[in-house]
Structures are given as structure tokens and as C-alpha cells.
């Protein structure tokens, strides 16, 4: 069992080194722009058939992303739905 664990850790270290040499890291930032993080308007899906001609739609309001230096005026945080305590009798009145 010890030999198996050592081999597994060695393989993981080699994979980590290879990823870091190729420019990947586990702590890499997501492709989401910093100004869009946490916004419910963020879309971020690339459209198109060929990889080199795809266009990424950032959000419905600013298709190419917010380019201003100040925070986006249309930023909306995720809103948790409010649950109503009304009963069907209250609604039918």
C-alpha cells in the first residue's frame, strides 16, 4: 500500500509540473472579468463553430464586457428569492 501511495503522489507531482510548464496552474483566475464576478447578468459563453472565430458574450447588457474604470452600473448581485407566507385563502380574498 505504501508503494502504491508513493507512486500515486509521484504521478500527481509530475502532472502538476507539466501543467505549470504549459502555463496552467490550479490557482488560475477564471475567465470571468473581475468586474463581473458575482453579477447575475454574467453569461460568458462563446458562440461560433470554429475555435478561432468564436465570440464570447459577456453579458446581455454589455456584450463585450464593461470597459469603464469604475464599477459597472448594471451589476446585480445574486438575489435570493423571498418566500411568501401567504396561504391560498389570503390569495383568494
Most strands sheet: 2 strands, antiparallel
Number of helical elements: 2
Number of domains: 2
Approximately how much beta-strand content do the residues carry? Answer: 5-15%
| N-to-C span | 70 Å
Helix content: 25-40%
User: Which overall shape is indicated by the principal axes computed on the Cα atoms?
Assistant: elongated
Strand order of the largest sheet: 1-2
The number of strands is: 2
Quickly give the structural class. alpha+beta
Write up what this structure looks like.
With 93 residues, the chain is of the alpha+beta class. The chain folds into 2 domains: 1-28; 31-79, no CATH class. The chain is 26% helix and 12% strand. It has 2 helices and 2 strands. It has a two-stranded antiparallel ribbon. The longest helix is centred in the first third of the chain and has 20 residues, at 2-21. It starts with a helix and ends with a helix. 3% of the residues are buried. The mean pLDDT is 75.
